[in-house]
Amino acid sequence: RREPLALINLKKKNEETGEEELSSRLDHYKAKATRHIFLIRHSQYNLDGRADKDRTLTPLGREQAELTGHRLASLGLKFDQIIHSSMTRATETTEIISKHLPGVKKISTDLLREGAPIEPDPPVSHWKPEAVQYYEDGARIEAAFRNFIHRADAKQEEDSYEIFVCHANVIRYIVCRALQFPPEGWLRLSLNNGSITHLVIRPNGRVALRTLGDTGFMPPDKITRT
């Protein structure tokens, strides 16, 4: 419901001026800028941790975050903000990346926490969460998609560059939804730790995927998917 026509109360349309007034009002609601969304998967973390606070980054994970931060800084873009999952591994990854992007504000959100977005098709034998997880996590992750992945506001004058540091399941689901692919196929995608996925959202609402899970900036011995 972000098409300009959906943002106008047609009942208030002046019957005398008709289409001419409608056209001028539509221009007021049309997006002008492009949004660049950089989805970063957190770095490698301690899988043995029982609680979230114990699942901290490994030494290699910290190296990966440094490499990702250096890569983002090297792009020479003026990043507007870093929005990150409130989980420990995403927060730590964000802190390291942000050192390379001084002055860029950081925002934590529970919406981007890891979870089970939707039952995958085809199913897999090694991962079978309880059905209730799909209902609880799925609604939250869908809310994250609707809240963060959309065309620019009509008031936005310049193109924006935003970083989202979160989790593999969340990123894979968002990519499928953004490209209008069946979301049930999210588990067919694979993302390395610290990888960069770049979505572009044009003013007309069309979405393009520039990179998916890029880790070409990392030495081969630093690449992991755990």
Automatic annotation (TrEMBL):
A Pfam family per the record: His_Phos_1
Cellular component GO terms, alphabetical: mitochondrial outer membrane
InterPro entries: His_Pase_superF_clade-1, His_PPase_superfam, Mito_Ser/Thr_phosphatase
Keywords: Hydrolase, Membrane, Mitochondrion, Mitochondrion outer membrane, Necrosis
Chief location: mitochondrion
Keyword Ion transport included in the entry's annotation: no
Keyword set includes Membrane: yes
Catalytic activity: O-phospho-L-threonyl-[protein] + H2O = L-threonyl-[protein] + phosphate; O-phospho-L-seryl-[protein] + H2O = L-seryl-[protein] + phosphate
Cellular compartment(s): Mitochondrion outer membrane
Residues annotated as signal peptide: none
Primary gene name: Pgam5
Sequence similarity: Belongs to the phosphoglycerate mutase family. BPG-dependent PGAM subfamily.
Enzyme Commission number(s) of this protein: 3.1.3.16
Protein's name in the database: Serine/threonine-protein phosphatase PGAM5, mitochondrial
Gene Ontology biological process terms in this record: positive regulation of mitochondrial fission; programmed cell death
Molecular function via GO: protein serine/threonine phosphatase activity
